[in-house]
Putative DNA-binding protein
Amino acid sequence: MEKLKIGEVISKLRKEKGITQEQLANFVGVSTPAVSKWESGISYPDITLLPILARFFSVSIDKLLNYNNSLSKEEEEAIVRECQSLFNEGQEEVGYDLCMKYIEEYPSSYSLKFSLAVMLNFSCGLTKGEERQKDTLGKTIPIFEDIVENCTDKDIVNGAIMQLGVGYTVLKDFDKALELYKGIQQQICDTTAIIASIYAEQGKVKEARKLLQEKLIVQINEMYGTISSLGCSYFDEDIYISERYIKLVSNFIKVFENEGYPNISMDMNLALAQLYAKNNLEDKCINALKETLNFIDLENIGRPIDYSNVWFLSKIDIPKEEIVTVNFVEMLIASLELKEFALVHNNEEFKNMIKEIKEKL
């Protein structure tokens, strides 16, 4: 654990409360210079003042003393595994509460806060419909904002910025999203291939392959995301172009899915259905939804997203406890209940599809 700096704790709590050092000094019964010395680390408050400070800031003494604690990497990983296991077992509410408990308990462990907040967005926000998604973002956005403001690790900060951008976009706060995304510095060049070649020259072939395969996953997903976004950009302008982009990305990803890559084509069929619904093409929308259902293995709806059986990603070793389990059917049902599919909500074929899916859950 990192050594406690109680002066920083007092300073942070005082500023959050919006009071001056003099006001705090008057309440506690000490001089203003004494408070200044606490916050600068020159001296510490007498132990008899801790209950008074805790009461003033409406926190426990334990929290007051542990407010700025940091965890070791091993401790953080253990907490993440504990929380993820609950979501994997379907105990979403318990997992949600435990994540929030740890986030509150270790407010300065930014890497832990980031991991847990991402987990909350993914496990609670994506599968429970629009209202739950907004509720989850209402909890996680302040966490990511705190990370951006106070964390000194650039990688964690950039990750938090990306999460905030997604959150702001979902909440339609587009100006904030653009401001954040534009603030992320682009790398001058990608050194992955160079590093891999150096590993190979050193005889570290396994390390080289692992690095390149990790990059391959990123590139597949980036290409998938780029083409998908292009298709969506034409939703309101040209249905034909939008349809072609969506079918293009479906064909692209199928090349990898045919080799064992986790199936994500369902999203593109869903995008087609949404496109048709937006343009009042009810029959096409229903047919696209039928195709979407063909991608779902109802016998294994809670399957984990795992690369261990993909031959061209064989060097990537993901611990079992870190493999994310996603209930694709719940995600699909939540998506279909959105207003974007209002066109088919009263369609009998649509109702029967939803009924059939829910009966097999």
The domain at 73-203 is CATH 1.25.40.10 (Serine Threonine Protein Phosphatase 5, Tetratricopeptide repeat). The first strand starts at residue 304 and ends at 305. DSSP finds 18 helices and two strands in the chain.
